[in-house]
Amino acid sequence: MNAYIPFWKIKNNTNIIIYGCGKNGEKCYEQLIESGYCKLSLCVDLYKSGSYLKENKIENPVEIINKNFDYVFITILDEKVAETSRQMLVDLGVSEGKILTLYESDIIIENNIFENSKSLIQYINNNYLKYGSYAKRPEEIFPELSIYLLKCKQGNIIYVKELIESINLLDNNLKIIILILMYNCKNFDENCMKLYMSCLMAAVWKDDTLYGLVIDTTIMVFYYPQYIYKDFFIDRKKLQNKLCECYGLKKLIQEQEIKKETNKIVIVTSRFRPNCITDAPSILVKNYALAYAKLGYTVKILVLYSSSDDDIENVSLLRIYGCSSNTLVDYSIEDFENYDISIDDNYISNINERLIGNVNTIIEFAPEYIIDMSDEMFIESIYLKDSIPVVNFPMRGNAYSSEASIYFVDSYNRVSKDMLLYNSIEMKNVRELVLGNVVIDNEDALAYSKEDYELNGKFILVTVGTRLNYEITYELIEYVGRELLEKYNMVWILVGDVIQKKNSYFYSLLQQRKIIEWGYEKNLFRLFKMCDLYLNPKRIGGGMSIRMCMYAGKPIAMVGTESDAYIYMHKDYIINNCIDDMMKYIIELYKNPELYKKISDKTRKQIEGYTIEADAKKIIEICENER
């Protein structure tokens, strides 16, 4: 269930206690108290008592019993922790009816409220008038519709079409809010995406709302590529151009004399946290920076903070995929001590100042090249590329809405076919280059011991990802469970994200230790050495962990997919038919040690020639030849 403030349960002008004073507590305080919707009775936090939320001293929760209040509102995002806090308050003597969390769901939906367009439009307009000045999430403004959509069968496209017909009668900004609600509730399709993009094109906000929503569109279709329509990338380019004009970047860039100095490179990234073992893009940024420094370049890493939460006071809506700025940077300066590398990671909450600052930083540094590793979030490139070559580096599949001088892709023919449909980048600027992007911290590290983990004799399948909750489907679990884990001496280790929605069969496999939720692993290479085979679900990403596993000499099993590791795969381990054939392939490797050894050796040889240093040199050679 999505987390949101239950305005529908909190009456206007009531006295409220804010429980939980972290980042989300601040947002809730701004929406509930600074907006004038409620009056503050007390701020409490079990771990922050004595410090301050804005100008309000934070007390220990036990002080609640000494205060008069109408509600205690728990702002904690983790639902289980919030529930534990609720129980603690009950134990203190607080009435359950006065305790609210971000996960209230006992909404009574009036009969016939969504029966026809007229009643639906009336409901939307009434709720917007009632909550629109305070609420920042679609679910907060339209809680009944949110619950209704969640109860609808996922992908109930018939209802979606009816809803779209209704909302076409609404104000443009209201359309956007309803479409975001439909997306959050997974009642969405490519027609909804097309309408959403057209609404963004027509949007007129005097705040930073549009910036956040445009940036988030690339993540929306990354998670759900089925929402991409024919002109999506062209439309996103138009939106990026609109933002540049709104923030004055076009004029700023075109009025300056831009110089370039040899042997200088700027690497642009949306975030930089190579200390986070699951952040493959950041790890690549770090290693490419080191590679260019070793080649004699002066390198500046520019952190855009594109995906950071916008200033709540300067947006009408909170972002779909916004992140705390504190979670976007995490690195050790010691890693760069002996190299000519600087990191510009000054966070500026004001987006206009941030974008202008990014442009000025680049112009003042005067790089020979800009390497864009930002996942389609570097909107400033649209005008910079006319003066400084911008090299687009593929981070997770394709960046068809990025603006660049040169686009590096793993397959010219594939992109050429894509452009017959999307027509968003000129093929004259596309260069084929298969980049290994292999990062091995300690090649000589010993493998983890199967004995230590009570896995002796087991044939271990492994899958790694930070989005396994999206990528591991019930269908895949059924196939792997029924065809492999129940019939053979196999175990499946899931590394990274925890599967949130577990069915009874998944639970039974966990209890039998046929599936192991490993959590995040710092020493992936050592784990891969212990495992026997990498099982890749159908997904766009996964490439970095797959290549590391290949380097460990482990076979890869994958159905034909858009994974960014596809290009490295030998035909022996691409299953172009169906998941049944992938199961047969895994069983064949399990039963036939000679075949397993042959594929294992071939896998290692397929990848061992790639290094980031060699990749970095190839990129520069191609760029030099383009002059």
Question: Please, could you describe this protein's structure?
Answer:
It is built from 23 helices and 19 strands. The protein starts with 14 loop residues before the first strand and ends with a helix. With 627 residues, it is α/β, with parallel strands linked by helices. Strand 17, helix 20 (543-551) and strand 18 (556-559) form a beta-alpha-beta unit. The mean pLDDT is 88. 41% of the residues lie in helices and 13% in strands.
Using DSSP, what is the number of strands?
A: 19
Largest sheet: 7 strands, parallel
Strand content: 5-15%
Count, helices:
23
Derived from helix and strand composition plus strand pairing, the structural class reads alpha/beta
Distance between the termini: 53 Å
Rounded Rg: 26 Å
Strand order of the largest sheet: 9-8-7-10-11-12-13
Helix content: 40-55%
Write the layout of secondary structure elements.
Layout: E1 15-19, H1 23-34, E2 39-44, E3 52-53, E4 56-59, E5 71-74, H2 79-92, E6 99-100, H3 117-131, H4 138-141, H5 143-151, H6 157-167, H7 172-184, H8 190-202, H9 209-223, H10 232-246, H11 249-254, E7 264-269, H12 280-294, E8 298-303, E9 341-344, H13 351-365, E10 369-372, H14 381-384, E11 390-392, E12 406-409, H15 412-422, E13 430-432, E14 459-465, H16 468-471, H17 474-485, E15 490-496, H18 504-511, E16 515-519, H19 524-530, E17 533-536, H20 543-551, E18 556-559, E19 574-575, H21 579-591, H22 593-607, H23 612-626
Parallel strand pairs: 1-2, 1-5, 2-4, 5-6, 7-8, 7-10, 8-9, 10-11, 11-12, 12-13, 14-15, 14-17, 15-16, 17-18, 18-19
Antiparallel strand pairs: 3-4
